[in-house]
Amino acid sequence: MGGAQLERPSGARPGVCVRRSFRAHAGDQPRRPPGPIPVPGTMKQESAASNTPPASQSPTPSAQFPRNDGDPQALWIFGYGSLVWRPDFAYSDSRVGFVRGYSRRFWQGDTFHRGSDKMPGRVVTLLEDHEGCTWGVAYQVQGEQVSEALKYLNVREAVLGGYDTKEVTFYPQDAPDQPLKALAYVATPQNPGYLGPAPAEAIATQILACRGFSGHNLEYLLRLADFMQLCGPQAQDEHLAAIVDAVGTMLPCFCPTEQALALV
Ligand SMILES: N[C@@H](CCC(=O)N[C@@H](CS)C(=O)NCC(=O)O)C(=O)O
Question: From CA 89, how far away is CA 47, in angstroms rounded?
Fold first, then answer.
């Protein structure tokens, strides 16, 4: 199964849930160019075991799983960080869209996937924000996929990441007037890995310096920025953009000089 299919909105008017000061109406459906464009990176269907340690007695998700009309066995899971480009669980359908009332923030520390105990990386969580809007991908799991996905995500998100489950309302980009109940993994300030707010420059420095089991923290940032770029101009994330800008400013300081390279 390929990556989540992202249909680049043509130069259409912005969809629903755009910048704080703008409220379009469900009728403003962006026209669709033919054929979807895959989200950057492949969403491999490799077995979950390939990138997480042996499953432990992970706690079961605290939220009752949100159900939508139709297939009672189906469950939608909303990804807004690494799940956007690497869900690594089998799913039946995926939709690009957004949740309202939350803002994405690089305020969660990560000592496994993108950092270490000595140098924790920074990954994203959702901050309750009445005016907020966060774009991501919702994945539909059905039948046996439900228990498999939840078992895998409990290890990856809850046990290793400190995330808890929360029910959110997801608005598909192509049908914002038909919202879906979805399960999201959110790192709250009560979890031990929570780092909280910091200036964009400090977050950028931490991201540039850290790597973990799943790769460099910079890859995490840039893949998310890549996804947001593909969502089109109506999808804005000022916090993410400020960190990307700060990384761009600092990168020369982290790059080896010609002289240093000549010594290699
Ligand atoms: N829950 C968020 C964030 C999840 C996230 O990024 N978790 C990290 C740290 S626990 C992770 O799974 N990283 C895997 C990776 O960086 O490839 C999402 O829905 O995407």
Answer: 7
Q: What is the CATH number of the domain that holds 86?
A: 3.10.490.10
Residue 3 lies in a domain: no
Q: Is residue 236 in a domain?
A: yes
DSSP 123-154: EEEEEEEEEEEEEEEEEEE-THHHHHHHHHHI
Q: Which helix (H) or strand (E) holds 203?
A: helix 200-209
Judge if the beta carbon of residue 114 lies within 6 A of ligand 1: yes
pLDDT in tens, 141-177: 999 999 999 999 999 999 888 999 999 999 999 999 9
pTM: 0.77
In a domain, 4, yes or no: no
Has residue 19 been placed in a domain? no
Protein residue whose Cα sits closest to atom 11 of ligand 1 = 82
